[in-house]
Here is the input.
Amino acid sequence: MGNFKEKYKNIIFKNKKYCIIADNFGFKNDDEFLDNIADFLSKNKCIISFVKNGITDKKYIDLSRKIKILCNEFNSIFMVNSRADIAFITESSGIILNKDDISVNDAAEILGENSFIGIITDKLTCDDIADENIDFILCENVDENQILNTGKPVFIKTKHDVYNSGNFKTFMIKS
Here is the structure.
């Protein structure tokens, strides 16, 4: 059958307009946080990446599993930010790595060949584009001419995040 991820990557990312990096900071409780995620997912097919902020690993795993269920219900993709161990435990679709996280190669080794690996960067480089283990890129600040011909989905930071009640950093697909 070959590598599932490589075969279907373009189809999987094709209709995902947004990539949201969400944390539960600023919400009164877990239900409000999950309700906001469900509300957004009901209106948008997207990627939701959950980042740990001020909670225990146990709670992070619990909330991750709940977000994954919501993503499955709304035909969206669930990923974990920065933590390959949590991504593996929760069987997420992949991980989004920051520049100070483990290497892309280490994440690929931990998660396996069918997990998606994205990076978040403030400067798109030729190395990012050439790295075969990087499946998609989130750019904080980038000249849109740089993203042409990358051959990978590239999401650009929007001027305004989707929700004011919490911390949902929003990126929109550009290629």
